[in-house]
Amino acid sequence: MVTVVRPRTTAGVVTVMPVNESSRHSPDPSAVQRAAGNALQSKAVRVEKLDGYLFRTYRLTTAKGFFYILRSRPNHNIRLLRHEENRLDDEACSLQALASRPDLIPARLIEYRPSSNAIGSKYLISGPFGGSIFADVEPSLSRQALADIDRSLGQYVRRISAVTGTSFGSIRQGTSFTSSSWTKIFALMLESVLRDGEDALINLPYEGMRELLRRHRGSLDKITQPRLVVMELSADQNIVVDARQQQVTGLLDYSTAFWGDPYLSDCFYKPTASFVEGFGKLPNGDNDERIRQYLYVLYHALLAVVRHYYRPSADGDELEARRDLTTAMRQLSVLPAR
Question: What are the DSSP E strand ranges found in 177-298?
Fold first, then answer.
């Protein structure tokens, strides 16, 4: 699993502040409280603003012991990459499409407001969630408990990966981001990040990456069954756990769900031994599997470099990502094309 620096969570009820010009950039807390109460049909909803998330995220806690998540657009001064623009729409559609699988997706879509009338921004409420956000309890857990949760995450991802679709790409119906070809969808995803990098004038071997994709498209063509993928899955602040049972019970964010090759998910970028034990054997046997593995490393490393330029963060290690990118390109250059 990718190592993620645990964000510090700001606890406590959101303070009600008067509406002013800054409300265009941050939802009015009283409006958030009102929207949460209306959606959950309760006047006793505790609202907490959580830090460490790209989209503004609030935890909504009721007297019943469960919690819900309200997610809205980031501040306007936060630069989003191309593939991040429609995440609320994507999550709403994903939760609706997967509602028939409560064994995998225990959360449901409670409310989705695609307009900004209610709180000054489009927003989505999902839940209920039982247990704790992993980032909140991780410091108090033993090494063995952490390994058990990592193993449980591997088992959870294995169950998600067993869900099949009819075409690759978006779970949303009626979008152009669907195809019968995994090669085409992966190429579109890679090209989106490449163009973000070019727009920002980041010094990277763009044409070299495009050429490696063209050279090895035959190995991607071997993937013919679309399966459920949650691309950005493994961050501690996205995982919900039962700390007593040391089990993963769900995920907070399904906005990066799509139909593809499960091994592109970030949880396979640098998996721990416990995760692999829970998931099962990883694909690294034949030439096609190794090629796909390096193409996926290339994608994640490229994304990390570009994201760092758009939103510099102390959590990110650009030099390590560039080293991973260089290693993947070197290996793809010497592996024979299929």
Answer: 178-179, 227-230, 239-242, 247-251, 257-260
C-alpha distances out from residue 203 to 80, 286, 317, Å: 19, 33, 16
For the chain, list the domains and their CATH numbers.
Answer: 21-130 (3.30.200.20), 135-334 (3.90.1200.10)
Query: If you search the block for the tokens 């390109």, which residue do you land on?
Result: 329
Q: What is the pLDDT along the chain (338 residues), one digit of tens a residue?
A: 333 322 323 322 222 223 333 334 567 888 999 999 999 998 889 999 999 899 999 999 988 888 999 999 998 889 999 999 999 999 999 999 888 887 777 789 999 999 888 888 899 999 999 999 999 999 999 999 999 999 999 999 999 999 999 999 999 877 889 999 999 999 999 999 999 999 999 999 999 999 999 999 999 999 999 999 999 999 999 999 999 999 999 999 999 999 999 999 999 998 999 999 999 988 877 999 999 999 999 999 999 999 999 998 766 689 999 999 999 999 999 999 87
Q: Which of 160, 153, 156, 157 is nearest to 274 (CA)?
A: 153
Q: Alpha-carbon distance 146 to 143, whole Å?
A: 5
- The pTM (predicted TM-score) of the whole model is 0.89
